[in-house]
């Protein structure tokens, strides 16, 4: 069977599965809709969290980015996994004990202030929309590349699927579809990499093949360093970014991860405090399965790519090369007219432009794997995009229905009506997300830095202080969040939108790039909060009581 | 007499401090700050600093979380705070 038929069959089967699960797990109450009734077993929650967290970017783009960044790509690997340690140790158990539905719930109640709640709602909605637009776009791209439909059509199909299970099932439907989506995506990611690892290094475990030897007995990484040097790229195993920037970006990604509302809210869905701890551990195992494979894939693919295309006659390139040239992901321009491809680190002589996404997408073809593997990769990319999109849409819907309507505008709202508002909000959010997926704002890439920076500079410090510093009051927390957000947002806006020419290490403060500035924003938030609290009214007794209470599992006697 | 919950909280903070120190050392320490020095040590095809940045730190994170789960479950039991 050809690639298209396989892709139709596999993608069709997975979609049928997701819809089946959605019908089976409809939400009957707001508690079902917001937190899946608080009854998700830790292992299932771990898988759902992993799928929730691993987006189209993790699945499609990350290995490619590492491939081209080498050591510097480690910021993503450490940043996007290390955040789970913070989540597990500093946030998840206490927020589970607190036991409400949303992050703004915690911020609003803990700081006895609807201003704080509103700041949190605006951040949550902004972060989630930023993210979800990218997921819808990712869905469209996978559809258009593998199934030859327009990107627009692809986005619409994705919207219909997500609409179906997010609006009907809420968190309950999302959780169980995410479990299925995790299985699809991890299988789809690992199969081609295992094949390639065996072919290149003779080792079936990519994590070991990564440090193994090639046919001629040289170590893969040494070969890659050698090839990189020959072609004028920086050595693969040592980076080019200044150390302080690597440090700050890693920290911003870690802290941002721990502050993302759609990840935090997953820990509200388990029955007990100790389940929140365990499920954070499971989630990280499931994530590391992909994240420790990605750098191995990056190294295999880079070596393979250089060996296959550099200094090869253009008329003799393999078929996949021509296929992917048509999509625009590969571009060859014969600068010196010798009919051969020169792939070098010097922009003046380099003739080949490679889009990082190709590393995962074209991987099965480069390695000459069977056609069904290609269909599988398409299904995996869609699973990654749709699972993350659903989690984000739920945050938007909960923020509107619960934090805005129920907690702020209309406290006497009945459970049934609140559920209706939540469904309508989820539906509306799907449409807005789809719109941005079809007409992506030109700055999607930068806005991801924005989302992490804001999560790092706003939620994370506010929640940490709320748990670990009993006396933190609303004045301190609000002042801290506002300063953190304004500082981080201004720095990113200045360098990416207002004055992009100045966006280089010479102009950065302390050599910190906009991607890493969230860390400084977080430190500022903490500093401002700790100063302001000294000069303002003490936290009311019942709030201090609340804090005492969330620090301990079970009921206090 | 200090109340039981305060003792529990202090013990919790001690556990957190230790584990967060490990978290810092395995990622920022070995993977970033000391990466160049560690790269002089080789294990198979890996330079050690590079390995910590792209592999080792992740494994360390998993171990840290499960250590935390183990220590906290033990602490909960010791203070009779285990939820049913």
Explain what this protein looks like in three dimensions.
The complex is a heterodimer of chains A (557) and B (84). Chain A is built from 24 helices and two strands. Chain A has 557 residues and is an all-alpha fold. In chain A, strands 1-2 form a two-stranded antiparallel ribbon. The termini of chain A are far apart. By secondary structure, chain B is mainly alpha-helical. Chain B is built from three helices and two strands. In chain B, strands 1-2 form a two-stranded antiparallel ribbon. In chain B, 37% of the residues are buried.
Specify which chain pair forms the largest interface: A-B, 49 and 42 residues
Number of helices of chain A: 24
Quick one: CATH class of the domain at 3-302 and 367-441 in chain A? Mainly Alpha
Percentage of residues in DSSP E strands of chain A: under 5%
Arithmetic mean pLDDT of chain B: 93
Compressed to H and E, one letter per element, the order of chain B equals HHEEH
* Shape label of chain A: globular
Numbering strands along the chain, what is their spatial order in the largest sheet of chain B?
A: 1-2
List keywords for this structure.
heterodimer; A: 557 residues; mainly alpha; Hydantoin permease; two-stranded antiparallel ribbon; 24 helices; B: 84 residues; 2 strands; 77% helix
SSE arrangement:
The complex is a heterodimer of chains A (557) and B (84).
Chain A: H1 3-24, H2 30-35, H3 42-53, H4 56-69, H5 74-98, H6 103-110, H7 114-147, H8 151-201, H9 206-209, H10 220-231, H11 243-258, H12 261-264, H13 273-291, H14 293-309, H15 319-326, E1 330-332, E2 352-354, H16 358-361, H17 363-366, H18 371-409, H19 415-438, H20 444-457, H21 459-468, H22 474-498, H23 517-535, H24 541-550
Antiparallel strand pairs in A: 1-2
Chain B: H1 4-33, H2 35-38, E1 42-43, E2 46-47, H3 48-78
Helix pairs in contact in B: 1-3
